[in-house]
Amino acid sequence: MTLPPMFWLAISVSIIGSTTVLPAIGASPPAKAGAVKKVLAAAKPVAKVNPVPTKASPTVKPVVKAVDKVEPAASPQSAALADPQVRASFDQALNGGIALFKKNKQAEALVEFQKALDIDKNNVGVLNWMGASQQRLNKWDEARATYERVIQMDPDYTEAHNNLAFTYQKLNQLEKAEVEYGKAIAQKPKLWEAHYNLANVYVEGKKSEAALAEFQKVL
Question: How far is CA 73 from CA 48, 76, 125, 154, in A?
Fold first, then answer.
């Protein structure tokens, strides 16, 4: 199978630590378990795998191409957005925040996401974007609180579980990270980011066999 480019970038990051090396164009994945064992032997905690939010809440239009497509849950639109002018202001703030996020202008993105939340304070889609910006700014405690709020409101938000798990991982709360990755995988067994990140939790926890099993699920 052809793996997403992020996987091979993350492999490079995990093997060589702080230096990011882009994989060669057209590089092939390891075909056998022996190759995976070599990766496992050299692997270090993932340095920069911040899963991009891929789920839009019922009140947010999908505006980016998702690695893993998620359909919005079927629920009523927020009453706060019933007014067309209010909705236009919300969309402008959200889309502006996403544009700034993609340019890695995270502080400015957070300002726009907050404007959107001021209009629709419980919008889990906006909160998930906000958590991702907080991750990029290394504000891990803030990101943790944001993702915990998302999951409290929407326990079925798979990507938020994955993002919260990654945040726990960065905070060295490995047991909590393992639990949240498990929840993400239970909801979406083919979510490769969760399998890969869970494998790295196992590497950090010296659980080699479990780590190898998770790496193999990504192949």
Answer: 29, 9, 11, 10
d(CA 129, CA 62): 12
How far are the Cα atoms of 48, 87, 211 from residue 18, in angstroms, in the given order? 9, 42, 21
- 131-177 residue pLDDT tens: 999 999 999 999 999 999 999 999 999 999 999 999 999 999 999 99
CA 97/CA 133 separation, integer angstroms: 9
What is the DSSP-derived secondary structure letter of residue 81?
A: G
User: Are 172 and 200 in contact, with CB atoms under 8 Å apart?
Assistant: no
**Secondary structure letter of residue 145 according to DSSP:** H
Q: How far is CA 214 from CA 102, 119, 197, in A?
A: 29, 41, 9
Tell me the whole-structure pTM to 2 decimals: 0.67
